[in-house]
Design brief:
The protein has one domain. About 85% of the residues lie in helices and about 0% in strands. It is built from seven helices and no strands.
Length: about 240
């Protein structure tokens, strides 16, 4: 209990500028934890959507029926389902214009699906750069507070005739709290950013694999339609 009171007293008696820096670091810590919780929940949501979509996609349903289903439930379209809908919409547009050549369809599909994946990546990555910034700069902000506190302490002690360790120690301790606080903010932010970035990359890797599967599936569909068209024209 005495140590807690001592720490509080050190903070309360610190230089005003150092107190402002500490307050800023506390605010950064709160914001970084809020980002981690938000991004973690978002990744969980996208992972769950991915599992649900895979169940529907690989259940053997005709892709056009699955596309119609998602068009009727637009409010639930995000993640892999929006990538699927973007690709199939482009496929249908090309087919409606009479384009059934595989290379043309593949080019249009890859471009459209890549754009959709990029948009989902931006949503998944949202606020992660801010978390990385907090992890990178907070130790230096704490160090500035320490340097400022030590300089202020030396100015204060300049008028003291005998500066013993008992006189100097509290002032140095006040300054060092800023460095400790900066590390306290940075370490969770760096670990959280690394962990969440890996989770986001894992989700995006699944999207890129699905892009290949979707393109192959729709190329087969286009080839089947082209063969049917040629067969009809031959009669």
């Amino acid at each position: 209990m005495d140590n807690s009171i001592s720490l509080v007293q050190l903070i309360l008696h610190a230089n005003f500028i150092v107190q402002l820096i500490m307050l800023g670091l506390v605010a950064m810590s709160v914001y970084s934890w809020a980002i981690m919780f938000e991004v973690n929940n978002r990744v969980k949501k996208y992972r769950n959507e991915q599992v649900q979509f895979d169940k529907l996609f690989w259940a053997g349903h005709h892709i056009q029926k699955l596309y119609d289903y998602y068009l009727q439930h637009k409010e639930n379209i995000f993640g892999k389902s929006i990538i699927f809908c973007s690709g199939l919409r482009e496929f249908n547009n090309l087919k409606d214009t009479g384009i059934l050549r595989g290379d043309t369809i593949l080019e249009g599909m890859e471009r459209t699906v890549s754009i959709a994946i990029s948009q989902e990546a931006k949503e998944l990555d949202r606020k992660l750069p801010a978390l990385a910034t907090i992890g990178a700069v907070s130790p230096y902000i704490g160090l500035v507070g320490t340097v400022w506190g030590i300089m202020s302490s030396f100015n204060t002690l300049g008028g003291v005739e005998q500066a013993t360790i008992s006189v100097v120690a509290p002032h140095i301790a006040e300054a060092l709290i800023a460095t400790a606080l900066g590390l306290f903010v940075a370490i969770p932010a760096v670990i959280g950013h690394s962990r969440l970035s890996n989770q986001v990359d894992d989700v995006l890797s699944g999207y890129e694999s699905f892009q290949d599967d979707l393109c192959i599936l729709l190329l087969k569909e286009a080839h089947r339609d082209e063969v049917q068209q040629q067969h009809q024209e031959s009669f």
